[in-house]
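Translate structure to sequence.
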């Protein structure tokens, strides 16, 4: 097999949460009489660090501090999270990969305990060697977490692949010098993902064919 380790992103890659992200944000925007976002617009502007995404859609942090707004979003997102399900056939794909002997991990910009709760609630924790989220709710970057993960586990760069749905995942893969596949059904548009230079697929169903 080509790979021994897969490092999955969570939000927008395995968890289909784009709609609830838009609902949560639009609720906040509506309260302040700010322009609302369609999902197409959202995918065209969402980025990391998320503070830059907030600025792009009109937030003025001289009026309301970013940390206050970010916590308000997380509170709303948490309430909506039970509505977010896995993408179609995620369990089947994770099981196929598990049966090949490839180890699977999650590396997420979601806060660590929140990530554990989210994965556990959907009953798929058993597919992963570890779940790795960041220390706060502000989604600045998961670069340092990725570096620590590689140092702790001693992954071989040649047989490790990252799978995500944003250019941030691609940036980390390039920084770590590992392969990467991006899935276009998540938080950024297909047009933006093609800028990465990595392979882009439409659904998680296509992943197993590229791993063998």
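Result:
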């Amino acid at each position: 097999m080509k790979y021994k380790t897969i490092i999955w992103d969570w939000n927008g890659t395995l968890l289909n949460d784009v709609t609830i992200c838009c609902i949560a944000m639009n609720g906040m925007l509506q309260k302040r009489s700010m322009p609302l976002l369609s999902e197409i617009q959202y995918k065209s502007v969402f980025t990391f660090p998320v503070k830059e995404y907030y600025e792009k859609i009109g937030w003025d942090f001289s009026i309301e501090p970013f940390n206050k707004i970010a916590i308000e979003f997380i509170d709303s997102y948490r309430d909506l999270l039970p509505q977010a399900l896995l993408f179609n056939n995620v369990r089947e794909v994770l099981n196929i990969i598990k049966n090949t002997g490839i180890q699977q991990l999650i590396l997420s910009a979601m806060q660590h305990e929140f990530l554990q709760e989210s994965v556990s609630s959907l009953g798929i924790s058993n597919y992963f060697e570890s779940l790795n989220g960041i220390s706060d709710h502000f989604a600045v970057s998961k670069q340092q977490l990725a570096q620590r993960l590689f140092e702790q586990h001693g992954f071989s760069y040649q047989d490790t692949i990252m799978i995500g749905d944003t250019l941030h995942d691609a940036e980390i893969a390039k920084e770590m010098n590992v392969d990467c596949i991006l899935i276009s059904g998540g938080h950024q548009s297909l047009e933006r993902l093609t800028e990465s230079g990595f392979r882009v697929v439409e659904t998680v169903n296509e992943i197993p064919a590229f791993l063998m």
